[in-house]
Amino acid sequence: MSGDTTAVQGGRRISAHAVCTAIRDDIVSGTYQPGSRLTEELLARRYGVSRVPVREALRTLESEGFVTTRRHAGACVAQPSEREAADLLDIRALLEPLGAARAAQRRTEAHLKVLRGLVRLGRERARHGRLGELRPLGDWFHETLAQASGSPSLAAMLVQLRRKTAWVFAAAPAPPGGARRPDPAPDPAARAVETWAEHGALVDAVARGDADRARALAAAHTERALAEYRSRRPIPVRASKHSVNTASGRN
User: Fold this and answer.
1) Residue 22: burial class (beta carbons within 10 Å; 0-12, 13-18, 19+)
2) Of 173, 213, 151, 203, which is closest to residue 83 (Cα–Cα)?
3) How far are the Cα atoms of 41, 67, 95, 112, 217 from residue 164, in angstroms, in the given order?
């Protein structure tokens, strides 16, 4: 999408890029559930724009995998699968350590100042149980770390990947016939404290220019995220050897 298509709202020009961001945020937050229709007229009314930027935004979101077009139904919120969720974490496990290593080699003092400030805020809020304030801080932290890689292409991929991963994990359906894993879920408050301690160690490695250490810490962080995700998902029941099962749901 070119991003230069605009609409006028209250005398203020709104770009199609802004409309796309607003719709994407509403999809990620669950305002629009998987499978729900996205009609241009209703979206234009909701965001106070014409249908032209909405149409462009939907095309962009379809290319990103958030939206799909169905015959006779038009644009709908995509329905992510269990396999897609697992695949995204595998991709993150490859790219995030690379981004962290590059950040250790290319970060600026400005990047370090922001990262250290975010770690300080994150640790404080986690320690006081203010968990609702941690998500935007975490997004800001990872976006800054990605930018510190010095590669705009890699940074864009990392930011988009984390955004989509968060949505897919929240929206992915449980495998049919699954049973919950017996392992108890980690305490959210305790895990938040651990997460921001991990972020702090990563920033220390980046500040020292230790690319190997930064890569290892980022890899360990994504591995823990994968293990926690798997522990929360139901265990698929094995199909009979006579049945046909093309999507087992295993990670």
Assistant:
1) middle
2) 173
3) 25, 12, 14, 26, 22
Distance (Å, rounded) from C-alpha 246 to C-alpha 137? 39
Render pLDDT for 9-41 as a digit per residue (tens, 0 to 9): 443 456 788 999 999 989 988 899 999 999 999
What's the predicted TM-score (pTM) here?
A: 0.74
Beta bridge partners of 69: 75
Q: Exposed, middle or buried by CB within 10 Å (0-12, 13-18, 19+), for 240?
A: exposed
Closest by CA to 53, choosing from 86, 92, 14, 104, is 14
Distance CA 248, CA 237 (A): 9
Q: Note whether 112 and 206 are within 8 A (CB).
A: yes
Crossing angle of helices 188-208 and 211-232, in 10° steps, is 160
Q: What is the dihedral of CA 108, 114, 116, 119, to 10 degrees?
A: -140
B/e letters for 41-68, b = 16+ CB within 10 Å, e = fewer, are eebbeebebbeebbbbbbbbbbeeebbb
Question: What pLDDT, in 10s, does the model give residues 179-192?
Answer: 444 455 568 889 89
Q: Are 62 and 77 in contact (CB under 8 A)?
A: no
